[in-house]
Amino acid sequence: MPLWGMVLSALAEIRIGRVRVALSMICVAIGVAVVTLVIVFSGLVQQAAQQIFEQQVGRPVTLTVSPQQNGPPHMTETQVDQVRADLRRYHIVGSPLRQASEVSFRRNGRVITSNGEGDGPPVQTVGADSSLSEIRRLTLLHGRWLTAQDDLRMEPSLVVDKGFAAKIGLTEATALGADLEIGAGQVWVKARIVGVIGGGLNFGQPTVYMPFQAMVRWKLGEDMTEFAVRVQPADAARVTRQLKADSTKAWGMTSAPDIRRDSGDFSGIRGTLGKLILAAAVAVLMLGSLPVLALGLAAVRQRRSEFGVHRCFGATGPDLFLTVLVESLIVSIAGGIIGTLLAYLGQKAALSVLHDRGPFGQGAQIDTSFPWSAALLGLGVAICVGLFTGLIPALRAMQRSVIRAIRS
User: Across residues 163-188, what is the average pLDDT?
Assistant: First the structure.
């Protein structure tokens, strides 16, 4: 039987068994839509998770240099200056980090403390250089980031996130240029907000960034000073060895610091998430294939006499095998196209609900366009379903005895 004859025979059977074909197509479409949506949203979640990770920890590869736990709890100003000079000599981007354990803010007579007293979560106060924006992902919504000139100002410049702006009773737009006071011991120091950042989790811990030198000047957060360093992935091991050697030779530290590679952890998170998504997709694929397989076997049993007539007129076993398989492929591909369209519409509807929520909030730089690679993968899944669900019925059709088929 020629190929065009097999296709015509498959189309004729599809027209006759409309109910069975419709049910099979619905099963395939649902399975393909679910698998495609899982792939699409896994990509969006990975983008959001990576941005949050890079905002909180740093871009690849970020090394955090911390003093030994059994040594002095912080670096001296001389040691910080020496580390800065060495990093410039190595052409490496780095920034000191100092996080205050307790900082009070005051605006219009209202006092807000960073230790969680009062309403809402505690405030995280971080002192850093202007180069921190090259190490961590910090998306500016309004204003600017810290500059080298801010280190010289007696009035500290602040960059805050949306959470802190809301905590002091302002929006992200009205917070820009607002004046407030920072509690430094027994005095209050006037400060001004010069930038508002976004991205990450809307319900995360409110954060305030200020120049590292301002924190040193006003003796804020003296309990710990670290360094964030960003290097190329291939240079991470070499830079780690060099920094440990310099810490005892040039920096005057009694013991080598702890150096941890923070941003490399996300690759493991992404790999684990990918495996879970793949397992879920395979499970959905298998469950969606079973009803289609059952309908195909039932159709082969009902067409026993038809196969006998075909065999009497010269059709061979391979002809019947290919005819049933082509029919299954046509139904699965049609269901795959419908499922891909459903996934496309479902993604649009879901993103309209998720807009400005959680990691998809304002300031998040996430590509929400529909990935057509996921659509092609969905069609590939549909073809696999067609082959899987058509193979066993096709083998049954090929093995039908002519005499038994005619008698039936």
Answer: 89
Cβ distance 59 to 366 under 8 Å? no
Rg (CA), the chain: 32
What pLDDT is attached to residue 386? 82
pLDDT range class, residue 330, cuts 50, 70, 90: confident
- Return the SS3 of 269: helix
Q: Could you read off the pLDDT of 101-151 as tens digits, one per residue?
A: 778 898 888 888 766 555 567 788 999 999 999 998 888 889 999 999 999
What phi and psi, each to the nearest 5 degrees, are found at residue 126? Answer: -125, 130
Report the length, in residues, of the chain.
Answer: 408
What phi, psi does 153 have (nearest 5°)?
Answer: -80, 135
φ/ψ of residue 80, rounded to 5: -60, -45
Measured CA to CA, the distance from residue 378 to residue 242 in angstroms comes to 49
Q: What is the pTM of this model?
A: 0.67
Measured CA to CA, the distance from residue 281 to residue 381 in angstroms comes to: 10
Distance between CA atoms of residues 107 and 179, nearest Å: 7
Question: What H or E segment, with its residue span, contains residue 182?
Answer: strand 179-184
CA triplet 274, 279, 285: central angle to 5 degrees?
A: 125
CB atoms within 10 A of CB 33: 24
Residue 242, pLDDT above cutoff 70: yes
What is residue 365's predicted lDDT score, i.e. its pLDDT?
67
Distant-in-sequence, close-in-space partners of 314: CB < 8 Å, separation ≥ 6? none
φ/ψ of 397, rounded to 5, equals: -65, -40
On the CB side of 375, CA atoms within 13 Å amount to 14
Nearest residue to 52 (alpha-carbon basis) of 168, 201, 181, 173: 201
How many other C-beta atoms lie within 10 A of the C-beta of residue 280? 14
